[in-house]
Amino acid sequence: MARFASTEKFLASGASLAILCAMFVGNAVAQSPASVPDFQSNGTAWQTGNGGEFAAVPGSPSPLRQDPAHPFVGNGQGKQPTYRIADLSNPNLKQWAKDIMKKDNDEVLAGKIAYTPASSCKPAGVPALMLAGGPYYFVQSPKEVVIIMEGDHQVRHIHLDVPHSANPKPSWYGESVGHYEGETLVVDTIGLSTQTFVDNYRTPHTEKLHVIERWKLIDEGKNLQLVMTIDDPDTYNQPWQATRSYRRIQGTLLEEACAENNQHLFDYHIPIADKADF
């Protein structure tokens, strides 16, 4: 009789386990509907041309552009490379930012290194990270999306379906919260440190910087489109939009250390410890 009682308990516990598993699967399905875009499977990474500038969105104020008096020449073009010098006639930029950038432009034209996050090994911030070129890797779960850039392994955490904190402390990548709207990942970022730039023209910003990103697969999944709205009422006269696209490549995350040896040729403002840690 005891043997039959044990069997009944075993069957009952098995039934309970089956119910729990069914509940877990049901919750997973509810949190990960088929419409959620897949940015990560099959060794997928996303890449675009290194550096560059944001593409304009019709009807929006324009992102900053190169000063036509000082054309930009990139590496590998058979000419002496130059730095990005912003056209400060852009009417959307407030005067205090123009004054800072004018001083910086003049120093660069006089021979100063126009260091960027990529060359100085500092976190790029948002939205400037999305100009770095990649490869970028996405890790998606029901509660979080993580974006990893191969260069220096810089990481962004996007917390899903939660509100912003009441007063987030400014940080390199700020506080990003997101949600899915059908096949689009929408990301809302605030709390960005003023140590970062907005773009490769070294445009400053205030702690009021607010960036909304919309990520979507296009061209039958071959490309990934990013459309952003950038708002900082103390830096820009009105919000502006920009876009960037990335092509799908196959690969695995490689180790790419930024700070090794960059300080040997120029002063890139790379942080260097006064003494060894070990």
Architecture overview:
The protein is an alpha+beta fold and 278 residues long. It has one domain (44-250). The chain is 18% helix and 24% strand. It contains three helices and ten strands; from the N terminus they run αββααββββββββ. The termini are far apart.
Measured between the Cα atoms of the first and last residue, the distance is 68 Å
Q: Tell me the helix content.
A: 10-25%
**Proportion in β-strands:** 15-25%
The tally of helices reads 3
- By helix and strand content, what is the structural category? alpha+beta
Q: What summary fits the major beta sheet?
A: 10 strands, mixed
Q: Rg to the nearest angstrom?
A: 24 Å
Integer count of domains: 1
H/E element order: HEEHHEEEEEEEE
Overall residue-averaged pLDDT value? 84
What is the global morphology? globular
Low-confidence stretches: 1-31
Number of strands: 10
Q: Secondary-structure blueprint of this entry?
A:
Elements: H1 2-31, E1 44-47, E2 55-56, H2 95-109, H3 117-120, E3 136-140, E4 144-149, E5 154-160, E6 175-181, E7 184-190, E8 210-218, E9 223-231, E10 240-250
Parallel strand pairs: 5-6
Antiparallel strand pairs: 1-10, 2-10, 3-4, 4-5, 6-7, 7-8, 8-9, 9-10
